[in-house]
Amino acid sequence: MLIFNCPHCGVAAEETELSGGGEAHLKRFGPGCSDADFEGYLFTRENPKGVHFERWRHAFGCGKWFIAARDTVTLEVFGTYPAQTSEPPREIFDRISEKRPGWSWCNLSGEA
């Protein structure tokens, strides 16, 4: 069972207290975007074997959204942070890199 620490209320919540919201840090496109951009936003998702950033809502707690960094293979949780954050905090990136040498996240350097 996954256990996440809610960064808003501080509760260590089991996954049964949460609602999943899919992949985090997606670039959203507004009115007037191209059909290709909109299609990519709707249907193109990462499905990594390894580290993944996901949106979760503390549904049976404070009700707020947050992002969790976890490994999809081992279910190891590297940390959580508020959903309003545009990229992973440096301490989570460092925690992941310490356990997964050579790991990188393309958006951390501002690349697409």
Which keywords apply here?
6 strands, alpha+beta, 112 residues, 2 helices, globular, Folate-binding fold
Beta content: 25-35%
Distance between the termini: 32 Å
Helix fraction bin:
10-25%
Overall pLDDT level: 88
Widest beta sheet: strand line-up: 3-4-5-6
Please tally the helical runs, counting DSSP H or I stretches of 4 or more residues.
2
Structural class: alpha+beta
- Outline: globular
Strand and helix order: EEEHEEEH
Number of self-contained structural domains: 1
* Top-tier CATH class: Alpha Beta
Count of β-strands = 6
Identify the CATH homologous superfamily. Folate-binding superfamily
List unreliable stretches of 5+ residues: 107-112
Largest sheet: 4 strands, antiparallel
CATH architecture: 2-Layer Sandwich
CATH topology grouping: Folate-binding fold
User: What is the CA-based Rg, rounded?
Assistant: 15 Å
Protein described:
With 112 residues, this protein is of the alpha+beta class. The chain has one domain (3-25, 47-109): Folate-binding fold. The protein has two helices and six strands; from the N terminus they run βββαβββα. The protein has helices at 35-43, 90-99; strands at 3-5, 12-14, 19-23, 51-57, 65-71, 77-82. The strands form two sheets. The chain has a four-stranded antiparallel sheet, with helices on one face. A hairpin with a 5-residue loop joins strand 5 and strand 6. The radius of gyration is 15 Å and the shape is globular. The N and C termini lie far apart (32 Å). Residues 107-112 have low confidence and may be disordered.
